[in-house]
Design brief:
The chain is an alpha/beta fold and about 300 residues long. It has one domain: TIM Barrel, CATH 3.20.20.70. The protein is about 35% helix and about 20% strand. The chain contains 9 helices and 16 strands. Strands 3-16-15-10-9-8-7-4 form an 8-stranded parallel sheet. Helix 4 links the parallel strand 8 and strand 9. The longest helix is centred in the last third of the chain and has 17 residues. Bound molecules: ligand ERO.
Amino acid sequence: MSRTSTQVAGVKFDSYICNASGPLDASFEELQSLGESKSSAIMMKSCTIEPREGNPEPRYVRLPHGAIQSMGLPNLGYKKYLDFVKDLKKYSKPIIASVSGLSLDDYVVMVKEFQKSDVDLIEVNLSCPNIEGKPQVAYDFEQSEKILSAIRNLGKKPLGLKLPPYNDFSFQKQMAELILKYDIKFITCINSIGNTLVIDPEKESTIIKPKRGFGGLSGEYIKPVALANVRAFYELLNGKVSIFGVGGVNTGSDAFEFLLAGADAVQVGTVFEKEGSGCFERINMELEEILLKKGYDSIESVKGNLKYL
Ligand code: ERO
């Protein structure tokens, strides 16, 4: 067992670092490369009932410290991901499905089917910011409750929620109450910050095409927001729910900050898109070194131990 091995919702992960749903995880070949990489899990692209091409290009642009994108859920449709699971089992690491319904019924259908599959965890994405006319569900607590109530008893596999950033404790409190009421086993904090705008002053133009340039911001820019959400939920959920931290994990030191805030594991998206699959081993080794230097022998011994001034 390595110093950075961990557990999420009772499922063992060989290291603290895995990929985030989003970049380079939509095709079978990409999922196979994740299997072969040092990502401690195979997290799949959020899927819908029907396959989707996604939004028009340009829809993903790297920025000096992150990225802005409005992908629009390009994916092969959930049936393909169900098929892939059997082949991906050979990598002997956790497989995480991610479902993103366009209606309540979509969530029910997809969660029911993944419950019958060999995936280890099911992440229910309530925070896609990039579908025109579809607000992020997790900002609507009534609609979120309807979905949670409809998907809670469809099987025994742990269900998790991918959440958007909240910037007021009253929102995190409302969501934490739902998470506990509906027995959600893990959360993923945070999705990209939705509907941000980057402008090219030379061209006097937006830099992505969909939605008149509005898109999800990710990477280093959003790390303080992600840390705050991990910490707020860690305090509200009293260790009853596992937490994936995501948003600006670029180095072992970033991962260590998420660990102090209370994350059980971290996911890497923007840096994976830029650096490729070597990032998982690099960040994990950097984290191992930090733990070794500080004399910590496990993730558990540090998790959540943030000091206050
Ligand atoms: O556009 C997307 O496919 C997308 N982008 C995000 O930043 N977050 C998402 O959750 C998502 C699709 C579900």
